[in-house]
Design a protein that fits this description.
Helices cover 33% and strands 34% of the residues. The chain has 4 helices and 23 strands. Strand 19 (359-364) and strand 20 (367-372) form a beta hairpin.
């Protein structure tokens, strides 16, 4: 081939290549699209947690004693004050009877002091006063007769000694009477003896009560570590109870924190009973974020817990938030730079890929609400397609949605 022919052939080839490229460019890149649809959205946050009781109570004996009977087993519902474990108490009961007998004796002595001893002491004062008056009169008469020479000095001395003795008896009677008055010493001693005996009874009752282990609260038995015949010792846990209102403890991804509100309703289901959901309500939001997991601790109250719930069960929870009816929605894969201040969507318009800024509303894994920028029926090009703004593109025969990429409801995990 001559040089001139070579140049002509090369030129024709180049023209054909350019023409082919131009034709391919005019035809555009094949892309799949997803339409903007209207749908009712329910904002929710889904998490996994565990069923928990606010209080876990461990019961142990306060004394060393043999276990006589255990009234409950694991899973039993118990009421406050219900007898759970009874320890050997024969000696304690005998001590209580002895203390009660001593109390009865002290009370009888107090009654005797008030009804017998005190009145007798008063009468003794009256008798002693009369005897002193007689002795005083006799002394005065003897003194006068001695002065007149009728009695000897010995007679006067005897009258003086009788008077002094009567005075001493009278003083003693007064002291005894005062001691037996309601505010006197004897009365006080009788009251003290009654108090001591009463305290002894209370102590004996307390010792006996320590041998009967009762439930301090309403709850459910979680653990039973004791059997009849074993030896209970202080500090050794015999039973463990769960009490208080049932709650669910869960961790929510920190990115959903802005959606959580105290009182937010929720639906929960135990993994063991998935077909039996029950209502719950958000009651607590943790004040800090777990640095390791990036989650926020939340607690949900269960106002009416089903009978099948048990502590430490795994529970799935769906916190129900805002609802949006007839909203424009797109799959999350079709929204670009969704977390930035200027999200946008690559749209198919007039066989070209066009960048369109949008404003987002509710969002979650799989679905985003388009508040403005698009209309129902618009076709968006997902990020999985190889197209850039300004490219000439052509729609394939089917959309991603028709191929099984359905627009899901708004669910965050």
């Amino acid at each position: 081939m001559k040089p001139r022919q070579k140049w002509v052939f090369a030129g024709v080839t180049l023209v054909l290549l350019l023409t082919g490229a131009l034709l391919l460019r005019q035809r555009g890149t094949l892309v799949q699209v997803v339409p903007v649809l209207r749908s009712n959205l329910q904002q929710s946050v889904v998490a996994t947690g565990r069923l928990n009781a606010p209080a876990r109570i461990e019961l142990a004996a306060e004394v060393t004693a043999t276990v006589l009977a255990v009234q409950v087993r694991e899973g039993d519902q118990v009421k406050a004050g219900q007898l759970l474990v009874r320890l050997s108490d024969a000696e304690a009961r005998a001590a209580l009877q002895q203390a009660k007998a001593a109390l009865g004796e002290a009370r009888n002595r107090a009654t005797q002091q008030a009804t017998v001893t005190a009145p007798v002491a008063v009468q003794t004062v009256v008798q002693a006063d009369a005897a002193w008056r007689n002795a005083d009169s006799e002394f005065r008469r003897s003194e006068a007769l001695v002065a007149q020479g009728f009695f000897s000095q010995q007679k006067l001395d005897e009258a003086r000694r009788a008077l002094e003795s009567a005075a001493s008896v009278l003083r003693s009677a007064h002291v005894q009477a005062e001691a037996n008055q309601p505010r006197g010493v004897e009365s006080g001693l009788a009251a003290v003896r009654v108090e001591q005996a009463s305290a002894a009874v209370q102590m004996a009752e307390a010792r006996l009560a320590r041998l009967a282990i009762n439930s301090p609260v309403d709850g459910v038995v979680l653990v039973r570590n004791v059997e009849p015949g074993t030896m209970a010792q202080p500090g050794r846990v015999l039973l463990a109870l769960a009490s208080g209102r049932t709650r669910i403890d869960a961790g929510i991804d920190e990115k959903h924190l802005h959606m959580l509100v105290i009182g937010m309703p929720a639906k929960a289901a135990a993994d063991a009973y998935p077909a039996q959901p029950f209502a719950a309500q958000l009651s607590y939001i943790g004040p800090a974020v777990d640095l390791q997991r990036g989650t926020v601790e939340v607690r949900l109250a269960v106002p009416q817990p089903p009978a099948f719930l048990k502590p430490d069960m795994t529970v799935s929870v769906e916190l129900i938030g805002a609802n949006r009816s007839n909203a424009l929605v797109l799959p999350a894969a079709a929204v670009r730079e969704a977390d930035s201040a200027a999200p946008w969507v690559l749209m198919l318009r007039d066989q070209r890929a066009v960048r369109v800024p949008v404003k987002l509303g509710l969002r979650g894994i799989g679905t985003m609400e388009i508040v403005s920028g698009l209309q129902e029926g618009d076709l968006a090009i997902p990020q999985t397609e190889k197209a850039l703004p300004g490219d000439s593109v052509r729609q394939t025969g089917t959309t991603l949605q028709s191929q099984g990429m359905e627009v899901p409801s708004f669910i965050s995990r």
